[in-house]
Automatic annotation (TrEMBL):
GO molecular function, a single term: lipase activity
Keywords: Signal
Source organism: Nicotiana tabacum
Lineage per the UniProt record: Eukaryota, Viridiplantae, Streptophyta, Embryophyta, Tracheophyta
Stated name of the protein: Triacylglycerol lipase 2-like
UniProt keyword Iron, yes or no: no
BP terms from Gene Ontology: lipid metabolic process
Amino acid sequence: MALIRKLITTILIVIFFVSIVSAARNRLQILSDQNEDGICISMVETQGYGCEEHKVTTEDGYILSLQRIPKGISGKAATKPPVLLQHGLLMDGITWLLNPPDQSLAFILADEGYDVWIANTRGTKYSQGHTSLSPQDPAYWEWSWDELVDFDLPATLKYVHDQTGQKLHYVGHSLGTLIALAAISQNKLVDMLRSAALLSPIAYLGQVRSPLAKSASKDFIAEGLYWLGIHEFDPRGDAVVKLLQKICQDPGNNCSDLMSSFTGPNCCVNSSRTDIFLEHEPQATATKNMVHIAQSIQANAGAQTSPFNAATVNWRDMNMFQLSLMKMDLIRAQLGMIGLCGNRKCEAVRAKEEPQVRLRDTWAQTTCAMEIPHLRWSQNQFGRRRCAEGSHVWLGSRICDDRRCGQVIAKAES
C-alpha cells in the first residue's frame, strides 16, 4: 500500500511539471545553438593541442561525434596505439577534458604518445544527429544501454580501428565499463581490442552508492516519467529538477553537496572545479535508459534485456525490462583487463561471483598501481601510493586538491 501511495505521489508531481518540459527544451535548444563550436574548438585547442572532429553513423541511424587528439602538446605525432575514452552516464566526452592538461586523462595520454579518441554517446549535446529523427521526436529517445552495446560501441570502435589500422586500448568510466563488459561477454569487438581499462566498473548494480540513484530507483521515478511520455531524461530540465528536489527532501538524502549526491562518497573531487563541471555536465540521456538502470539496481543485476514492448508496461511490479544476468564467465582470459573498484562492498560482490568471473587477478580494489599483461597502470611522476578506503574514480580520472593523489593513467606495453 505504501508503494502505491508513493507511486501516486510521484505521478502527480510529474503531471504537475510535465506541461513545462516543452518550454524548457526550447530554451535549452536555443542555448545549445549559441555554442556550436564543438569539443575540439571549445575544450582542446584552447589548451594548445591539435584536435580533429569526426562523425560516426550507427546502424540504427544515430550520428555520433568523435574527437581525436593525434599529438601531444609538443606537436610530436603519436607513436603508441590508439586509445578510446568512453564516458559514463549523464556525461559526454568533455568529462575527460575538464581539468588542467596535467590532470586530464585525455591530455595526459596524448602527451604520453597515444593517439587519443574521445567518444560521445547518442543523446549528448554533440551527438544529437540522426538520419531521420530529431531530438524533439519521442522515437529518438527509444533506447537504453542495450543499444549502446549493440550500435554505439561497435560503430565507434570500428571507426577508430579502420581509421588507424590498429587495435585499440579502451578506457571506460562507469556506464562506459558496463557496455564494454556486456559487449566483451558476448564475444563482440574483442578482435579490435588490445586491452580494456575500467574506471568505477559496473557489472552488478546493487552496490550503487549514489543517494539520488538509490532513491530514484526505489521511488520508480524513471518509470513514472516514461509512462507519462517524457522520453528524454534531461537533468537540466525543469521537470527532472523538480523531481530531484522532491527526492532531496526524503529523509537520509542530503543534497547540499550536489556532486556527492550524484556520485556517492568521493574522496578525490576537487571542489574548485565544480563550477566548471556544472557548465558542461550533466548531460541528457533516454528515460528508457534510466528505467533500465533503475530496474537493474532494484534487481541487483548486471542485466541486459529481452525485446522491449513499450505498450505493455506492467505497473503492478514496475518491471518494464525482463532482465538476465550478464555472462561474465564468457570473457576471454587473454584480453588484458583491469578495473579500479575502490570499496569493500565491491570486493564482497567479486568474491561472491568469483567462480563465474575470469578477472581474478585484474581488479585493483585498494591499490592504485599494478601491472598485468598488456596494460600497466600508474599514477604519473608522483609515484605509487595506496588509495584511501572508499575512493571513487570520477570524471575519468582522480581529482584531488593535492596533486600527489595523482591521476590514473594507462601506459600500454607493445
